[in-house]
């Protein structure tokens, strides 16, 4: 809000002020060119006005830069908080359930692949926060730079922890699916062997 208001102030000041300065310079130039008896004083006034106008423009530019920097800082703080909240929320959504049978485990494995795809979409936001922190840290020192590093560090840590939890769950689900597949194959094999055993017992024995 301050930046928008100041942008309007700067535009109005620059437009109106430049017109008035140009008019004053034209009047001074006419007096000096016309040989006015006070032309030396007029020239001094003209120089003073131009110097004061240049100082005012510099102050306006400096204020605009300060507001832009403050806007970038506040936007970084907001973005870092939002991304951190999203990462922590996603981390809480990683379940511990692995499934009680093959069908359930395979279903959970498919769900987890979709979940990891959603998680990966957050990488762009994490990268944006890290890049903004690096850019802003170069412009600040002391406590503010430490604050920037701390916020970026919290986001990076949460991102690493979320990916680690996803990788761990993917591995556990993969192990669970393989275990159930083995158990099913072993059960089928045992049933087949039992069937063969029964057939052998049913055959007529030689006399």
Automatic annotation (TrEMBL):
**CDD domains hit by this protein:** SPEC (cd00176)
Q: Which Pfam families match?
A: Spectrin
Q: Which gene encodes it?
A: Sptbn2
This protein's source sits in the domain of life called Eukaryota
Identify this protein by name. SPTN2 protein
Key words, A-Z = Actin-binding, Repeat
SMART domains reported in the protein's UniProt record: SPEC
List the Gene Ontology MF annotations in alphabetical order: actin binding
The keyword Repeat is annotated on this UniProt entry: yes
In its UniProt entry, the species of origin is given as: Grantiella picta
On whether Repeat is a keyword of this UniProt record, the answer is yes
- InterPro entries attached to this UniProt entry: Spectrin/alpha-actinin, Spectrin_repeat
